[in-house]
Model the fold of this input.
Amino acid sequence: MNIYARLSQLTTPLARHDRGVVWVLAATLLVVLALYLTFLLSTIFSVIARNQAERDIDTVRARLAEYERTYMNLATRVSMELAKEKGFVQVASPGYIRLDDRGDVLTFHSAR
Done:
């Protein structure tokens, strides 16, 4: 038998499966490409969200600094005279609330 005829007999069954192999490879390529694009878009959206969160944090920090400055300005103006003008009185015997040693019970203690 001729070597070319023998080779043809061996490759004929493989030729039948070529289309199936091509389709499997094409489908695998499409799935891998879809996964790659999904991960790429996810990464891009995460970076955008992180940048937005950082801007929001900076805005909150600036607002907090402004509140702290306002508090400090107001706290320096509070005095016993101002408190009496507003109707507050000096407490003769102050009371305190402290956390019990167990850490879960609040108790009231008077300074008497």
Remarks:
- Residues 18 and 67 are 73 Å apart (CA to CA).
- Residues 3-110 form one domain.
- Helices lie at 3-75, 80-85.
